Amino acid sequence: MSDPTSGPRHVALIMDGNGRWAKARGMPRTLGHRAGVQALKRTVEAAPDLGLECLTVFGFSTENWRRPADEVSELMGLVRAYVESDLERLVREGVRLKVPGSRVGLPADIRAIVENAEARTAHNDRFLLQVAFNYGGRADILAAARRFAESGEDPALLDEAKFESLLSTAGAPPVDLIVRTSGERRLSNFLLWEAAYAELLFQDVLWPDYGYEALAQAIEAFRTRDRRFGGLNEPERAAG
Predict the structure, then answer these.
(1) What pLDDT does residue 17 have?
(2) Euclidean distance between CA atoms 104 and 3, whole angstroms
(3) CA 164 to chain centre
């Protein structure tokens, strides 16, 4: 067993495979998405117990709007259901919920649900859960660039730390590990800036089957990695 003090602090998950899980069982895709919500609940409950400080999941991408209208509607309904069923638990267990991504184009009730959940959990500090929704890495970088341009600040003063503060993920710990389920091996426009020195892991498990064991395996795999940051190892990087 590797040293549990070696991290990771922050794991990001691309939750993939709901449709294939449903198809393999002769079910409609919508039931795969519903099973995926249960997997999310299991994984969020497991994350603090496994030593994580932050979990970021890819809930709905800017590209997902291209899916059939009934599937998009189902995904929106699952957001409502997840928050309604789990918000009180998140509040009670000290979980802060943050929803990176654009609010533009979201139904008014979804925006209200998101804003209420963020407000209700804003002072929690035991664990940070980020659900990237209506999110795309490129769009987030462009939005940050626009925010800086609109600020009127001198471009000569822009550095990486300032730019990161303008992203919708600002305030979270650095991403240590990005995991994609279902065996696919690409980032799909997820956390492009934040992924710069993250470790990548691709697990051959469909998202509805995910939970404590799969997350524990991902964390254990991370702890076997020899991380390098432009040639520096972690202690050297931390020491500056």
Answers:
(1) 95
(2) 43
(3) 16
Residue 5: the pLDDT is: 63
Residue 34, both tokens: 């519903």
Taking residue 199's Cβ as centre, other Cβ atoms within 10 Å add up to 18
Q: Mind listing the pLDDT tens digit for each residue in 2-18?
A: 555 678 999 999 999 99
| Strands 177-180 vs 199-202: parallel, antiparallel or unpaired | parallel
Q: Dig out the tokens for 132 from the structure.
A: 């990237």
Task: Give 146's contacts (C-beta < 8 A, 6+ positions apart).
Answer: none
Q: What is the DSSP-derived secondary structure letter of residue 190? A: S
Q: Token pair 């999110």 is at which residue?
A: 135
What's the rounded Cα separation, in Å, for the pair 95 and 76?
22
Please say if the pLDDT value at position 75 is more than 90: no
Catalogue the active-site residues: 16, 64
The number of angstroms, rounded, from the C-alpha of 192 to the middle of its chain's C-alpha atoms is 12
Convert the pLDDT of each residue in 20-29 to its tens digit: 999 999 999 9
